[in-house]
Amino acid sequence: MNVLGKFNVSGTVKKMNIKGRYSSMEKENVQDALLKELAGLECLLVSYSGGIDSTLLALLAQKVLQDKVKCILFDAPLVPRRAVKEAEENAQKFGISCSIIPFPIMENEKFRKNSPNRCYICKKQSARILKDQAEKLGISKIADGINASDLNEYRPGLQASNEEGILHPFLSLGIQKKQIRQLAQDCDCEFWNKPSSSCLASRIPYGEEITVEKLQTIENAENSLHDLGFSNLRVRLHGKIARIELVPEELEKAINMRARILEVLQDCGFSYITLDIKGYRSGSMDEVL
């Protein structure tokens, strides 16, 4: 399968750094700009999650660097089992060279305390492991799939990645999520419209301890709702209360299925089930900061 042969996305792309300085690249093809950026790296280790951003980054990097691209997928209780399985399947489907390694972040007491800089602590630790792996592989550059749209959210982990020298090719070219989806769609990648995902710890309010048991409860609840046919969703944990976030077009469906939802989420260990009428939004736990 030539998954990259059909890319043809052009337009004005703004080149930027993390500090926000821009220089335009008028009418330059987005794919060409990315390939040029990646070709200059000579070899690359990709922090891979199986999501659209890191998968597309790995595919583009392989196009220009071939076997000089390796990927690392971290496995931890923070990552839903479905996400790990999908990431493995995508890697096999697209011929991505990927190693899965355990990520012992739950052994980190500071992380488990769940302060607002939780993501900084996590990214700092993961970046150091990536650097160790890169050294073993003889690779000098490490990159992730962070893009310009991510700057619209609270991202303390980005600072940690920058401090550790992790590259962000999409971000450095000012490429946003919608452009990444367009690139993936144009090459017939069926994951192009895959909902964004995040670690399960983001469902727990800041200040409440993160435990494996809580993460498993959240994962089981979200799996149960996915099995009922709901798409992009979050189950936020507030003690024994489940606060369900759904995309607006599925709110009425949830009301009609409330008895079944009540049943499956109580089976997951929740005593009270609530539906957030504001709907799904990324980073809703950050609204209190």
From TrEMBL:
Pfam families: NAD_synthase (PF02540)
Entry GO MF terms: sulfurtransferase activity
Residues in NAD/GMP synthase domain copies: 40-102
Any single biological process term in GO: purine nucleotide metabolic process
Gene3D superfamilies: HUPs
Transmembrane segments: none
Protein known as: ATP-utilizing enzymes of the PP-loop superfamily
Protein's organism: Methanosarcina vacuolata Z-761
